[in-house]
Amino acid sequence: MARRGDLLIGLITLVGGLVLFALARPFGPMPGQNYGAGTLPRLVAVLAVMVGGALVFKATRPALTGSGATVAEPVRPVDRAGILRLAASFGLMVGHLLLLRPLGFVPASVLLVGGIAMLLGRRWWEAALLAILSTLAIRWVFVQWLSVPLPRTDWLILPGT
Question: Is the pTM higher than 0.70?
């Protein structure tokens, strides 16, 4: 069962990476720079292809070598708490999309990352630290390095805005 799941997720990730790479190809470099709007999607696509390929290899390797257990794995009961965390994560992402324009990128992203970190069992101060540092790092990469404008927060003064 786990091998079939790895194979399916690996194929989906591999194909998704190839599609993303193909869709990002038309985005050329920005004037005066060697990179542009397609740089990050291409990087994510290459990583997705690598991860997907590794999962496919892992799932098919026992069949290729003739090794591996043939005993069926027991079916585990559905983890209701896990499903609730997944639903809450989805709700946080929808909330992030809805709050981007009124609040701006930084506050909306701090809420998203902090909320997901709390759902994953981090203490409040760990979640807050992770949310603030990761949001500022992501903002810096997009605004300073990639020159991609993000939704602004008028009441929050940050360097480079």
Answer: no
